[in-house]
Amino acid sequence: MARRVSKRKAPSKEDYQLKERTKLESYVFDRRIMLLLSSMIKKGILGGMDYPISTGKEANVFRATTPDGTFVAVKIYKITTAGFEKKMSYLEGDPRFGMIKRNEREIVKLFARKEFKNLQICERAGVHAPRPFYLSDDIVVMEFLGEEGMPYATMNMLGPRGESDLDSILEDIRKMYRAGLVHADISEYNVMLGPVPYLIDFGQGVVLAHPNAEKFLERDIRNILHYFEKFGITRDFEKTMKWIKG
Which are the catalytic amino acids? Predict the structure, then answer.
């Protein structure tokens, strides 16, 4: 006797929304974070939180909406992480932050503030990066990069689309340098592929007055050139550095 094969129903929109809501609720926000988010909603900065679009050791990024339904990205830095202690070299020596308290919570807040300030520099310089909207303690609200509510993929997932992607990234590095900023963490994981490549994750970025700014710039250039070389797109490092620095 032939076995009957049951057809699986495609998940409905309601099923999908429930799944994403459950995923959001699985992230335990402490009372302080809940109060900060609640305050943003009362101020009309946020209308509501949707679901996580990126998770990491140091921060999680969520899609959210404003009261008028516009999508935004909400980056919440994690307080309970040891990763930031290893990154103190990106804070120490940055003249924007003066005396730094060796307190985990304060350090995390400084990284959020640092990212917000760096994104402001990028916006003024015309760099392809998320526009910063609002900062509260260890939460940064910024432009959502994506289409129809779906975030753009990062370059490590898709690979470069051609030489024009490298041209755009290098041009943005050059604009940042002229504006007095070095990203200090450029890799294929920190580039989102929209109509043009967008640079993300600016928490480690340093100003040129930082004692390691030049070293970080060289590392950024070597990282991105090495990545593109894997796809047959090559550039001379010394010439590229000379062009970046003008």
Answer: 185, 201
Q: Are 83 and 54 in contact (CB under 8 A)?
A: no
- Cβ count within 10 A of residue 158: 12
Say how far apart CA 246 and CA 228 lie, in whole Å: 22
Q: Which domains are present in the chain?
A: 23-147 (3.30.200.20), 152-245 (1.10.510.10)
Three-state SS for 111? helix
Q: How far is residue 234's CA from residue 166's CA, in Å, rounded to a whole number?
A: 10
Q: How many Å apart are CA 74 and CA 142, to the nearest integer?
A: 6
pLDDT digits (tens, 9 = 90+) for 7-63: 445 455 455 455 555 555 555 577 888 899 999 999 999 999 888 888 888 899 999
pTM of the model: 0.85
> d(Cα 140, Cα 75) in Å, to the nearest integer?
5
DSSP string, 187-243: SGGGEEESSSEEE---TT-EETTSTTHHHHHHHHHHHHHHHHHTTT----HHHHHHH
